[in-house]
Design brief:
Elements (H helix, E strand, L loop, with lengths): L30 H10 L7 H14 L22 H24 L24 E2 L8 E2 H11 L3 E4 L5 E4 L10 H18 L6 E3 L8 E3 L18 H34 L5 H13 L7 H6 L1 H20 L1
Antiparallel strand pairs: 1-2, 3-4, 5-6
Length: 323
């Protein structure tokens, strides 16, 4: 991820002479990334590299791609890779970490009421608010910013010179140098997450709210309004629509029960001679009009819920007064 102006890889070279890059066997894994960056420019907005890295991140998150680092490729002469069990542990550490990064990042854009605003996502906020990610039940939550910072310390970024003389800072893909396999996996997960952050897609990535799906997906465009009833992928839009309808009806009923509970109390305190259910129904119709017209039968059918709502309101009021 660049912290300065966007640059094209060709501008990194101080002169216009043709340069030949020789890739030895140990660098085979980096060849595709390097070629994409040279031909297209690492931070060329909307370019092939940007699309390539985004598709790879989505495929990794959804388990459709497993080759995330040098340990997943065919054996390279002289590499001396770790054992199969160590590689398996590294694979699990990578995907768990990457998903934890993205899940924690998405969660920072969701408020306490469940309303999601993707544009408000962050990796660091005020001093008393640190966006965190939960890696596993056996590991304490990790502050996203701190995790990125520690990875940067292990994989120092390099200064780059743009063609116009300005400076940029580039982050290399972590190299395998016989370090701890799980630490290498953590750094690779951080690298891919940073690539997501440096792209314009950071506010468009989402995770399907359907319990039977949970796939990661990319919205076609950035949302300009808040998402009030969950994000759903293209395959679950109908499920999302049904869920939104259910939640909307539940909210409407709660609002009606609140008005009904107030009217229920007023009828009892003033000892009105009219039928209680009819009087409460008229009060509800007076508040909501023709959009939610009800009859006394609705009041009788929901009498227990109305009384329960009224008792809860009374208890809450007493607690508030006591405080």
């Amino acid at each position: 991820m660049c912290l300065a102006r966007r640059f094209h890889t060709a501008n990194v070279l101080p002169d216009a002479e043709t340069k030949v890059v020789e890739l030895v066997a140990l660098s085979a894994f980096y060849a595709h990334h390097l070629l994409m960056q040279i031909l297209d420019g690492k931070n060329h907005a909307g370019g092939l590299y940007e699309r390539f890295i985004l598709d790879m991140i989505l495929a990794l998150l959804n388990g459709e791609e497993t080759r995330w680092g040098i340990l997943n490729w065919l054996p390279i002469p002289g590499l001396n890779p770790p054992s199969a069990s160590q590689c398996e542990a590294a694979n699990a550490a990578f995907i768990t970490r990457l998903r934890a990064f993205v899940d924690g990042f998405i969660q920072t854009g969701i408020d306490s009421g469940g309303i999601e605003t993707p544009s408000s996502r962050r990796v660091r906020a005020s001093a008393d608010e640190s966006p965190i990610m939960t890696v596993s039940a056996d590991e304490a939550p990790v502050v996203i910013f701190d995790e990125i910072y520690e990875s940067w310390r292990r994989n120092l970024p390099r200064p780059l010179l743009n063609g116009d003389g300005t400076m940029a800072i580039g982050v290399n893909q972590p190299r395998w140098e016989n370090q701890d396999p799980e630490l290498y996996a953590r750094d690779m997960a951080t690298y891919y997450f940073q690539e997501l952050l440096s792209s314009p897609f950071w506010s468009r990535i989402g995770k399907c709210a359907s319990s039977d799906c949970k796939r990661y997906f990319l919205r076609k465009r950035q949302r300009k309004t808040a998402i009030k009833r969950g994000s759903y992928c293209g395959s679950c839009k109908l499920i999302g629509g049904a869920e939104r309808t259910r939640l909307s009806r539940e909210r409407a009923k709660r609002e009606m029960l609140q008005v009904a509970a107030q009217a229920w109390q007023e009828w009892g305190t003033r000892r009105r001679r009219t039928d209680r259910a009819a009087w409460v129904a008229n009060r509800i119709n007076g508040v909501f009009g023709a959009t939610r017209f009800i009859r006394p039968k609705w009041v009788n059918q929901n009498r227990e819920a109305i009384e329960t709502f009224f008792d809860h309101e009374q208890l809450t009021s007493r607690i508030s007064v006591g405080l």
